[in-house]
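Form 7-S
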Amino acid sequence: MTLPLRLSVIIPHLNEPDDLRRCLVALDAQRADGITFEIIVVDNGSREMPFGSCAGIREVRLEREAVPGPGPARNLGASLARAELLAFIDCDCVAQPGWVRAVVGMMETRPDIDLAGGDIGILMADPQWPSAVESYESIYSYRARAYVERYGFAATGNMVVRRKVFRSVGPFGGIGTMEDTEWGQRATAKGHRIAFLPEARVLTPSCKSFAELARRWDRHVAHEFGRVAGHRIATARWLAGCAVVVVSPVAESFKILMTDRVSGVRNRLLALSCLTRIRLHRARRMFGLALYGDTHRFVETWNRDG
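Output:
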């Protein structure tokens, strides 16, 4: 007898076949827990379709979405899903043991919860000797609990939602939006209940270089500036915010000293040095956008040159 599918896992992909393979292998290993699930990989314009990455993985479906952006790719996957629970994970994320069991278990035993976000950590190249970017990102880049409990959304690198809820909220936005933030806050504004699920943990590599980290922040800053552009008072507040960002590493040094996300003096100093560098970059970008605008060059080319 064929058991009903309890989960559809949706993965957008763009030019990361090795990461996708690692992601799929980690998911496939969780079939040992006895939970039936399908995997839908949606390629978003890679140079080559990742057939090799998907080879030998059970219950996997490979599709292609021509419209750029992870949002449209996730939307296609959601439209094809057969289970009543939809889980979203990024192709460079590695689901830790028990991830499938945790997301299905919570959603099946808590009918009052409509969507949930899991924990996200850094997959380090050498955990004993993390780089400055890895140390920084371990503290600052994936504050999954805060996303859920303070800001009302879940990062789509580790999110589960009921299919009927996804349909009621509507699709993710395109490449010109911060699609997970916008979608999640749209969902919670409609009254859908969100929860943080620390037992469902994924690890993801940090940015490979400071330049890559800076490009990520360029996109964030450009999206934020899009909300204030053309409004005199809001722009004045934006410029004042530039000054706050410049001096913020002084205040953040105490947080770095006390955090349990990294350990040791070396790693804390590395995190502080990277934080200072990226905050100065952000302030410079904020000031430049206030003077010259031109957000499109930071938003529309994000992750399309791989």
